[in-house]
Amino acid sequence: MTSTGVTSKPPCSSLDRFSQLDQHGKVQVMYVWIDGSGEHCRCKTKTIDFEPTEASQLSIWNFDGSSTGQAEGRNSDVFIKPVALFRDPMRGGKNKLVLCEAYDYEMKPVATNKRASCAEAMDKCKNQKPWFGIEQEYTLLDMDGYPLGWPKSGFPQSQGPYYCSVGSGRVVGREVVEAHYRACLYAGIKIAGTNAEVMPAQWEFQIGPCEGIEEGDHLWMARFLLARICEEAGILASLDPKPIPGDWNGAGAHCNFSTEAMRQENGLPIIESAVEKLSKRHEYHIQMYDPHQGKDNARRLTGAHETSDIHTFSAGVANRGCSIRIPRQCSAEKKGYLEDRRPSSNCDPYSVTEAMVTTCCL
């Protein structure tokens, strides 16, 4: 998230006792949806009389779309349809989080509801069992919008000591990272791991492996929880793909992809065939890989700092300077997956995964 100029303070610990009060059989369900920016979440809570076990048990609700960039004031109601249910790590107990799709007054997907078309694409290729794992990079910022822990009058030591590092002076914000990790596990999100990244105050978490539409659902809810935890800590988590210009790494959302055939013995030729298909649709994928059709990614995909050039498609084994990387182990075992390193950190995972199966599977 970017700073709005509004000052947020960490919550007062004296208020914690209220979260322990008896709910007398009532359950709080927080509805979460993607707003008109295509990059941020909004949420609102309703009280229900039972503990839901699946999203379909929850009713369609609505919100004021004129306040989220998704409708005009004269026709402002936007519907939110529950699609993926999670446990609520902030409230605990029987309380839930539910990810929703947004629809306009004609029950058509709003512009930033990329899930609807993604679900259609996933349904068409479900027999191929597409798996995804997205590596979400992000940068922790203070409320001034400057990287957490960086000196205000200059810059930290240049990149080198920070990747997967440990120790004061090398790592910033681990307590937030650990809180987010545990919150995701509690919620039921398929978080696979986390690590400190190349630029100080930059981190990564991985979501997957997930099959089909589940990848987007779990990554969006993980992003929501990251924003909530940073809200509690009084800091920001930025998904900007190049938060600091100059000789500093940007932030991406590398997408690892495979089909069942790729994962089986002698699946390497199928992986190589997918790479060939991707090479012929480079411009399409660049447009799908950030919310501004490649404009955000242009600041990151320069051919430096472990990226490929945005205008040129490339592929290689174990090469982090390529558009597509085939891991060394997959090349040796002649099966596995490919990694698309082009998606930006602020991408919509529904758009990324839809583009992947559209090109490689359909």
Explain what the structure shows.
Helix 1 (115-124) runs parallel beside helix 8. 43% of the residues are buried. The protein is built from eight helices and 13 strands. The chain is of the alpha+beta class and 362 residues long. The two termini are 34 Å apart. The radius of gyration is 21 Å and the shape is globular. The longest helix is centred in the middle third of the chain and has 20 residues, at 214-233.
Q: Secondary structure elements and their pairing?
A:
Blueprint: E1 27-34, E2 41-48, E3 61-64, E4 77-87, E5 96-103, H1 115-124, E6 131-141, H2 174-187, E7 191-196, E8 202-211, H3 214-233, E9 236-238, E10 253-258, H4 260-263, H5 268-279, H6 282-288, E11 315-317, E12 324-326, H7 328-333, E13 338-340, H8 349-360
Parallel strand pairs: 1-5, 11-12
Antiparallel strand pairs: 1-2, 3-4, 4-5, 6-8, 6-9, 6-10, 7-8, 10-13, 12-13
Task: Please provide a brief summary of the model.
This protein has 362 residues and is an alpha+beta fold.
Q: How many H/I helices?
A: 8
- Spell out the helices and strands N to C: EEEEEHEHEEHEEHHHEEHEH
Main pleated sheet: 8 strands, mixed
Which whole number gives the mean pLDDT? 95
Radius of gyration, in Å, reads 21 Å
**Unreliable residue stretches:** none
Structural class: alpha+beta
Euclidean distance between termini CA atoms:
34 Å
